[in-house]
UniProtKB/TrEMBL annotation:
The keyword Hydrolase applies. Its EC number is 3.2.1.177. InterPro entries: DUF5110 (IPR033403), GH (IPR017853), Glyco_hydro_31_C (IPR048395), Glyco_hydro_31_TIM (IPR000322), Glyco_hydro_b (IPR013780), Glycosyl_Hydrolase_31 (IPR051816). Residues 506-601 form the Glycosyl hydrolase family 31 C-terminal domain. It comes from Bifidobacterium pullorum subsp. saeculare DSM 6531 = LMG 14934. This is Alpha-glucosidase. The keyword Hydrolase applies. Keywords: Glycosidase, Hydrolase. GO terms for biological process: carbohydrate metabolic process. Pfam families: DUF5110, Glyco_hydro_31_2nd, Glyco_hydro_31_3rd. GO terms for molecular function: alpha-D-xyloside xylohydrolase.
Length: 821
């Protein structure tokens, strides 16, 4: 880790017991020290205090104190110990003058929240900690209790261990960015450290189950997934990989580091088999009980700790002891040499260590992550959240939730809001972990959320009834679950590009809608909806289907512009600055995902479990606006991706879409950078979704500028309004251009066809279906006004079969279809 923890002296104003740092024109550091000693070392949370720039600010000293002013704020301070009366900051440019001034120790009423340590045992909503974004325009990050790094002990490999501050002080950071949320988060990441780049495999599907597998059973499951064409990239082994039932004299078997050879006779062979199937492997560990005499690693660890192995004295877990940590990490490395790729740190045993105030969870995350990059390995850890700054140690494990609709309903909000404290790589127990009930619709909707989550990890507790294999469900639920897993894997090129974007620019994959639309009240009123990268918005369905309509619903806010259903290409027009709020209805096999006009989503064709940069690409393109998209790929070598945009392993491919002009065209530019990272040639399937059927011309331009027509295969899918262009393998150093001489206009929404589908599926009287469909066929949108007349009172005559009933859900689903445009 690189630190610039000493503030630029040109940005510091100081008195005897106070120090003010103007880190940027919107970010302040405020310190008070009774001992007149201030902290310049990095801490558990803070990595950098010198951003390499000197912001513009003025300082005015008066007999009453000091005023510091920048274009973003005005600070007034009386020079005494911090108090509400004596220290305040006014944030400029805010509409509400009642809340835009911070006084020391003010409560964060307008704070947009952050995240929480865990969802263990959660059945729905839980309280969240604060984040660094606020509708008030200011937010506080208190680092007064943060341990320092770099001025204390280290492990043998130089990992700095946390040290208590030598002197107590008030040490807070005030974010005064107003509603410039993206700017605030960029300052946060520069202050606390950038989000590391994840390995590509982490963005695929993860299989996890708390179950006492044998190696043969696990490998048979892997073969079944392959037969079903269900891709996975990570195999998670819960705690039963190790001995869990030692002699009672040793205590609980919750902690363990010795393979259970009754279940896994040859661990190295088993791990190699998983690797051969395209999986990376993580093992669950509960470190609390240390290392006891029944462990294979005990003799070596005891000797390293100066304990006589014959004594069988337990080696206590102590993350404050460098000698213990060296032996502890050596033990893990021995297991890694067998084929373990990374560790699932399942710490849930409190927050106490021998060092008062030091959280063992934070220590484990810090130590494991930094150690995981030994021998050139790509660093990764998998653990619970341990407070601000935890984004430096991805990936997050959100804990054991209850299997209910309430749990599902909370997760979209919980995931998006975590970005407000920079924690952007949450991994949930998709499908829920324990208790609850069987509801196949619930599981299907949860799988769909998983596809559009930061990390997609299926998990379940010990039970013969709750395992998450898609073939455990029936009909539509099974189909929906399988399709969701396949789509997640297909999205790897898009996801990995967003991974690079997060790393380089501090833009999380999942963001609340108000990040981009901070001045729209409606953006704050759709907590379940979020941006998914640069091109998509997602609003998961988190409640049961309407029984009569047989569809689930979600409320979607569409910002001003043209939006397209990701799956079927129907377009929605949001006119006016306020955009448009609409209720959308989807059958079980679909969820509400919308692409902006001009969206470009690079995907990959079927590749089993492969995480290689694909030789067969599928790019989804939507009409209605111009756009460009740069796809990021690399050579998979960690040493070659650490220099940001200048990393020697990085390769970029740009897509350019001039979709709104009179002569639209889509261009695939030659790969640039480390072109050896990608295949020499690629097949391309370009799907222009939501577009009218039209003619296209396809050609490629070689490196010497020669233009050659390409014999592409062209077809049109009327169900998804998609023009599909299949291009044979083309050199990745060449340019490919698809032009539309007759234009590339959005297709008309098939109103009557889609209304018929809604009515066909509905559980309602056939007579009413006929009445409704006839009204729609004749009157189009105006048919909505007639729906109210289709509700009749039942006749007392048992021979009268003319009952009519228009269910409310069906009426509302039809309204969506009729009012899209």
């Amino acid at each position: 880790m690189q630190y610039k923890s000493v503030m630029n002296p040109d940005t510091v104003i100081q008195g005897d017991h106070w120090r003010i740092g103007v880190i940027t024109d919107s970010l302040l550091r405020l310190e008070w020290s009774d001992s007149a000693t201030f902290e310049d070392f990095p801490t558990q949370t803070i990595a950098n205090r010198d951003f390499g720039v000197t912001p513009q600010f003025t300082v005015e000293r008066t007999p009453d104190g000091i005023t510091v002013e920048t274009p973003s704020f005005r600070l007034c301070y009386d020079g005494h110990r911090f108090s509400q009366e004596g220290l305040s900051v006014y944030v400029k440019g805010m509409p509400d003058v009642k809340t835009n001034t911070w006084h020391y120790s003010d409560s964060p009423d307008g704070n947009l929240r952050g995240t929480a340590r865990t969802l263990d045992w959660a059945n729905g909503e839980i309280p969240l900690d604060t984040g660094v974004l606020s509708r008030d325009g200011w937010a506080v990050l208190d680092d007064s209790a943060g341990f320092t790094l770099g001025n204390g002990p280290t492990t043998g490999d130089g990992i700095p261990l946390p040290t208590p501050r030598e002197h107590e002080e008030i040490d807070i950071y005030l974010f005064c960015h107003g509603h410039r949320y993206t700017d605030a988060m960029r300052d946060f990441y520069q202050l606390t450290g950038q989000v590391p780049l994840l390995p590509r495999y982490a963005l695929g599907n993860w299989w996890s189950r708390f179950h006492r597998y044998t190696d043969d059973e696990y490998l048979s499951l892997v073969d079944r997934f392959a037969d079903e064409h269900i891709p996975f990239t990570v195999a998670v082994l819960d705690m039963d990989w190790h001995i869990v039932d030692p002699d009672p004299k040793y205590g609980s078997g919750w902690t363990g580091y010795t393979w259970n050879t009754d279940l896994f006779p040859d661990p190295q062979r088993f791990l190699a088999s998983l690797h051969d199937h395209g999986y990376r492997v993580t093992l669950n560990v509960h470190p609390r009980d240390g290392i006891r005499a029944f462990e294979d690693a005990y003799p070596a660890m005891a000797s390293a700790m100066g304990i006589d192995p014959a004594s069988q004295t337990p080696i206590e877990f102590d993350p404050t002891d460098p000698h213990f940590l060296d032996a502890y990490l050596t033990m893990h490395r021995e297991l890694e040499r067998q084929g373990v790729d990374f560790w699932w740190i399942d710490w849930q045993q409190g927050s106490l260590t021998r060092q008062p105030g030091l959280d063992p969870l934070w220590s484990l995350n810090h130590i494991h992550y930094l150690d995981s990059q030994h021998d050139g390995r790509w660093p990764i850890a998998f653990s619970r959240y341990a407070g601000p700054g935890s984004h430096r140690y991805p990936i997050g494990f959100s804990g054991d939730t209850i299997v209910t609709w309430q749990s599902l309903a909370f997760q979209p909000y919980f995931t998006a809001t975590a970005s407000n404290i920079g924690y952007c790589w949450w991994s949930h127990d998709i499908g829920g972990h324990m208790f609850g009930y069987r509801d196949e619709d619930l599981e299907a909707r949860w799988y769909q959320l998983g596809t559009f989550s930061p990390i997609n990890r299926l998990h379940s507790t010990v039970s013969t009834f709750s395992s998450k294999e898609p073939w455990n469900y029936h009909g539509q639920a099974r189909t929906a679950a399988t399709q969701a897993l396949r789509l997640r894997h297909a999205l790897l090129p898009y996801l990995y590009t967003m991974n690079w974007r997060t790393h380089l620019y501090g833009e999380p994959l999942v963001q609340p809608m108000y990040w981009r639309y901070s001045e729209s009240d409606t953006a704050y009123a759709v907590p379940d909806q979020f941006s998914f990268g640069t091109e998509l918005i997602v609003s998961p369905i988190v409640e049961p289907n309407d029984g009569e309509c047989q569809r689930g619903r979600a409320t979607v806010w569409m910002p001003q512009g043209l939006w397209f259903d990701f799956f079927d290409g129907r377009h929605y027009r949001a006119s006016g600055k306020l955009g448009r709020t609409i209720e959308v209805w989807r059958a079980l096999e679909r969820m509400p995902v919308f692409a902006k006009a001009g969206a470009i989503i690079p995907m990959q064709s079927w590749t089993n479990n492969s995480i290689d940069n694909p030789a067969a690409m599928h790019v989804l393109v939507f009409p209605g606006a111009d756009n460009s998209f740069t796809m990021y790929e690399d050579n998979g070598v960690y040493a070659d991706v650490q220099d940001g945009i200048n990393s020697p392993g990085l390769c970029r491919t740009q897509f350019t879409w001039t979709g709104s002009g009179s002569t639209p065209s889509f261009t695939i530019s030659p790969a640039s950078g480390n072109t050896s990272s990608v295949p020499e040639s690629r097949q391309w399937t370009l799907t222009f979704r939501g577009i009218r059927e039209t003619t296209v011309h396809v050609e490629h331009v070689s490196a010497d500028g020669t233009k050659v027509p390409i014999p592409a295969e062209i077809s049109y899918d009327r169900d998804t309004l998609s023009l599909i262009v299949r291009i044979p393998a083309i050199d990745t150093g060449h340019t490919v251009t698809v032009s539309f001489p007759e234009g590339a206009n959005p297709a008309d929404n098939p109103l009557v066809k889609d209304a018929h589908k809604v009515l066909h599926d509905a559980r309602m009287p056939y007579l009413t279906k006929e009445q409704a469909f006839s009204a729609i066929a004749e009157s189009g949108v105006n048919a909505i006004a007639q729906f109210g007349t289709m509700e009749h009172t039942s006749s007392s005559d048992p021979q009268d079969c003319s009952d009519s009933h228009m269910p409310d859900g069906v009426r509302r689903a039809l309204a969506e279809v009729l009012l899209r445009d």
